Amino acid sequence: MARFLLGERVMLYRTEAGAPIALADYCAHRAMPLSKGKRVGGDRIQCPYHGIEFGPDGHCRHIPSQKGTPQQMRVQAYPLVQRWNWLWIWMGDPELADEALIPNHADFSFVDGNDFWKVALWRMDFACNFQLIHENVLDVSHVSFLHEGLADSGSLVTTPAKTVVEGNVITMTRRWEDLLTDRYAKTFGIADGTRVIRTNIAKTYVPSLNVAMNFFEFPDDPEKAPAMRSAPMAFTPETDQSCHYFMAVGANYGEEPVGAALEAQGQALWNLILDDKDATEAIQEAYNILGASTPDVSVRADEGAIRFRRMLAEQMARELPQVSS
Amino acid sequence: MARFLLGERVMLYRTEAGAPIALADYCAHRAMPLSKGKRVGGDRIQCPYHGIEFGPDGHCRHIPSQKGTPQQMRVQAYPLVQRWNWLWIWMGDPELADEALIPNHADFSFVDGNDFWKVALWRMDFACNFQLIHENVLDVSHVSFLHEGLADSGSLVTTPAKTVVEGNVITMTRRWEDLLTDRYAKTFGIADGTRVIRTNIAKTYVPSLNVAMNFFEFPDDPEKAPAMRSAPMAFTPETDQSCHYFMAVGANYGEEPVGAALEAQGQALWNLILDDKDATEAIQEAYNILGASTPDVSVRADEGAIRFRRMLAEQMARELPQVSS
Amino acid sequence: MARFLLGERVMLYRTEAGAPIALADYCAHRAMPLSKGKRVGGDRIQCPYHGIEFGPDGHCRHIPSQKGTPQQMRVQAYPLVQRWNWLWIWMGDPELADEALIPNHADFSFVDGNDFWKVALWRMDFACNFQLIHENVLDVSHVSFLHEGLADSGSLVTTPAKTVVEGNVITMTRRWEDLLTDRYAKTFGIADGTRVIRTNIAKTYVPSLNVAMNFFEFPDDPEKAPAMRSAPMAFTPETDQSCHYFMAVGANYGEEPVGAALEAQGQALWNLILDDKDATEAIQEAYNILGASTPDVSVRADEGAIRFRRMLAEQMARELPQVSS
Prior knowledge:
The structure is a homotrimer of 325-residue chains. Chain A is 20% helix and 32% strand. Chain A is α+β, with helices and mostly antiparallel strands and 325 residues long. The first copy, chain A, has two domains: 2-82 and 91-96, Rieske Iron-sulfur Protein (3-layer Sandwich); 112-319, Naphthalene 1,2-dioxygenase Alpha Subunit, Chain A, domain 1, CATH 3.90.380.10. Chain A has a seven-stranded antiparallel beta sheet with strand order 11-17-16-15-14-13-12, covered by helices on one side. In chain A, strands 1-2-3-8 form a four-stranded antiparallel beta sheet, with no helix packed on it. The longest helix of chain A is centred in the C-terminal third of the chain and has 31 residues, at 260-290. Mean pLDDT of chain A is 87; it is low at 113-117. Chain A binds chain B through residues 135, 139, 141-142, 144-146, 157-158, 160, 278-279, 282-283, 286-287, 289-290, 294-301, and chain B through 7-9, 25-33, 36, 46-52, 63-66, 70, 72-73, 75. Chains A, B, C: InterPro entries: Cholesterol_7-desaturase (IPR050584), Rieske_2Fe-2S (IPR017941), Rieske_2Fe-2S_sf (IPR036922), VanA_C_cat (IPR044043). Chains A, B, C: Its EC number is 1.14.13.82. Chains A, B, C: Keywords: 2Fe-2S, Iron, Iron-sulfur, Metal-binding, Oxidoreductase. Chains A, B, C: It is an enzyme of class 1 (oxidoreductase). Chains A, B, C: One of its GO terms (molecular function) is 2 iron, 2 sulfur cluster binding.
């Protein structure tokens, strides 16, 4: 299987033992895509052109037309681990790969521990830079317009968020006291006329993940557990003009293993995010036309987006080779 | 409604009162196309993404997520007026917009005054620079070959034009005495065997408009009004590789309000101009391949085209910011 | 008829007398493709736009809208000859065109003299640089993998070639003694169980032609003529990202004029070379992504390919204008 990631073609496969492996998808000999080849001998990849074989570490193991394998015959291997049902790849300096950088999903799992979410919903492909999607979810004021009548009653745009930054995590919190069941609360199965307190938390783990958490408390029934939903979204750059949008969702209501309500939510989200796709792709197109003359006047609701841009720029600067004076 | 004009995306709409408005089609906030939004409050445009509103002057009137609107939050507004059934946009320095530059259509209206033409025929989209279309109509010798047997009897190529230049107008006149009704005269409803004097005038208003005027006089019947047709054609650049070809036509024969003969003429012209489209697009493709090594040997029939090129270059030079010494 | 050759659009036609002519496919006037025009007066080409006519030498012969033809009104004429059933074009300095550079097909014709081959099989269009196809046929070790089970029994990859270079010809020879009829020998109509000696010769005439020759000798029947097949393949660059693959084949078995066996071979070859097309186009795509960072570690089986690259680079260097010191 081949994926474009950060502009590189990457081949993903699993060894016989099931370990996930990521290699640059270009044979070291003549750049033939290894992803068109096959797995041989349990964990090697055989190039389909001249049959040259590479191990999971990228080193050449066999050249059919000769004895011996030159040391330089190797493809780049990328550190890759599977955590919290996602695959995490590190495409920078392999020495700097650090599993501790992977967001601890317990922080936003309301429910079942490690395997907390109920369903990985889907992947959508966007023809825009992944930053535009981050900015989309970091300014929820768009929900009242782009998704008018679909996801809230207009209150997101008029309720400012409290923003907290810790390390590479931007947390934006909105809280509404004394609400009555609205269209959004109903998707949590809350009965009409119930008095609720709603909390919306958007946590962005720069650069990879955004998590939308929503829960409803019941002031008239303090014993009752809050109804909670947590939706981690991974935005993965393909190129600087395209990316993947992975969506998962977990909740503490509905039936096990996957409530029909949650699946319906997944479909509703898909439709809603098609609007985000239209908007971010139209903006990417405009950016491409405008180039350096792109307008960019920010408003107060852009606080999260601005912080994201700054943090991403800092992270990228740190990755650049250091020049000593 | 959105149009590409001179490489910019422009949104066109009308206020509640009907005034035509042209704004740059990029929201000042994040470049979202305003043309995907809607008109609110009679004359404002609301961005579909975060609901920011702009007036017909391009200034921001409302930001839903906050009070107040920063001064810089504005989009470019282009001077736009409606004259002679066309919309005229000025995309240069707004200070220099001057309605007096709009060609006075009375100059080539044979018939009914301001609202002189009978029918706006159609728009065709060409994948070439608009200059190639101007050069097409400025050298009518092509009619005898590209449109062989369709529009004249071969005499256009062998009858040199008298060329007069006044201001930004190039006028080329051809005159044939003592003709008998030919295939072209028949399209004016002139009976077989009639002796006629034909005049063909092509007026080019650099850079926007070309007008083809044709009329037949009747030397054997001096009382009889000449049969006349006037076809203004507007060539509007989209990008440097594409343009629109707007065609209208007026005549003093046929029935009111629009003669079936004129409509048939429109269809015949459409088919004929499809050949021009093939030719100019093939030339654009050749120019793109050849780049700086494009051949370009001119002949005497190119006099009008050469004058057009020169005049256009001068107009563009005048638009460039002046550097004082 | 128009073809792209070395990035130029070339018009090919025959005079009334049948002589093949190649002209640059851009009218000297306004770059209109002459290939959309028609042949007039036996050997002239008439531009379809304004009717300007050019002779087989590229010089202008007639301009309908005026008397006289300016000296500069000419299109480039390329030396073109027909030899051995192919058309050979010379696109460099016409002074250097030399028919002696055309490979003498008698050198690889086993059979019938000048008109030796039985059938020109087909043309396939590849979206890659022509060098990638040369390298494909110069390293036949790929046959054992890319065409696994289709064309040999795996022995090509393990049998090193003897390589000889003479002038611009690279000859690679492989020989197998004491074989029994295998799947490949069967395509020559050799009966099961026959002991054979197989010789495979690949001759590359840099830059235009590769010839695959295969023959089987019969050690148990020295009187019997060897079964022979010769397949000249012409790789013609269209642009630096595309080329034509012309395939012909001759043999001394099967029935005259063209054996059904040979035609079946042609279809089998077409299918097999579709795999080469997939591989070389995938590599071209990879090269385009990777640019200067393209991996390129060679193995011993690349000897022929490396020699080809070097020889082609030398030929191109010789074509460059010389700068005297």
